[in-house]
Amino acid sequence: MADTLVVYYSLEGNVDFLAREIADEMKADLLRLETEKEYPKKGLVKFFHGGKDAISNARPKLKTAIPDLSGYSTIVIGTPVWAGKPAAPINTFLAGKNFSEKKVAVFASSAGGAAEKTFSAIADASSASLFATQSFKNPLTNETSSKEIARMFARKVRGL
């Protein structure tokens, strides 16, 4: 078991791409959150359901088993930005957790602007003081640049 866990939710593959790069660079364990009921991946229905759940701080049931987190000193959380907030499966993961004694870093992927509100929501929900954050815009449209930024973020989290 590594001392770092990269935990993430990805609907369209952007966050998955980033999480794998970050975990690889950090030699970290990787945990992809999957919901029991999948979110739509196309059209207005995708935005309606995802945005509604994000705004209402919904906690969809996960089919992913959450391991014992006590052995991890660093938790890196990855999420798409939905309506300015973390994706709802991240809410489920964070429910009842207190990461005040852990190093917590967050990265987010969006089609638009910055992710500061998303970072704040995760910090509040996890009782953590985030020591590193990174926002990505459509990372799969420029994989080479996104990969380099993801690896730089991972090195920052590791303290290199």
Automatic annotation (TrEMBL):
All residue ranges annotated as the Flavodoxin-like domain in the record: 4-160
Protein name, UniProt field: Flavodoxin
Annotated organism of origin: Treponema saccharophilum DSM 2985
One Pfam family cited in the UniProt record for this chain: Flavodoxin_4
InterPro entries, per the entry: Flavodoxin/NO_synth, Flavoprotein-like_sf
Gene Ontology terms, MF aspect: FMN binding
Taxonomic lineage of the native organism: Bacteria, Pseudomonadati, Spirochaetota, Spirochaetia, Spirochaetales
Superkingdom of this protein's organism: Bacteria
